[in-house]
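Students often ask why inverse folding is considered easier than folding. One informal answer: many sequences map to the same fold, so there is more than one right answer. In these notes we will look at a single instance of the problem. The structure comes first.
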């Protein structure tokens, strides 16, 4: 089975994370059901000072396909 890893870096995006997650999940679930792809969604929290990490943790509680990588401080652009 082919696997897709969608990596999404975020910084202070508490309001946008649920929207991005929902749209990404919809596309990836369609690929899983129709094409047999496995997937994971990896959010990289780049030292957010708002509630981004808490929002991500809340989403993760109901989704085993979601992973979170948390940076203690902002590392800037890659």
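Output (designed amino acids):
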């Amino acid at each position: 089975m082919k696997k897709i890893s969608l990596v999404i870096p975020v910084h202070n995006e508490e309001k946008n994370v649920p929207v991005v997650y929902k749209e990404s999940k919809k596309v990836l679930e369609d690929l899983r059901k129709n094409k047999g792809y496995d997937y994971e969604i990896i959010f990289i929290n780049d030292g957010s000072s708002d509630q981004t990490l808490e929002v991500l943790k809340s989403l993760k509680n109901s989704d085993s396909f979601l992973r979170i990588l948390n940076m203690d401080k902002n590392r800037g652009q890659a």
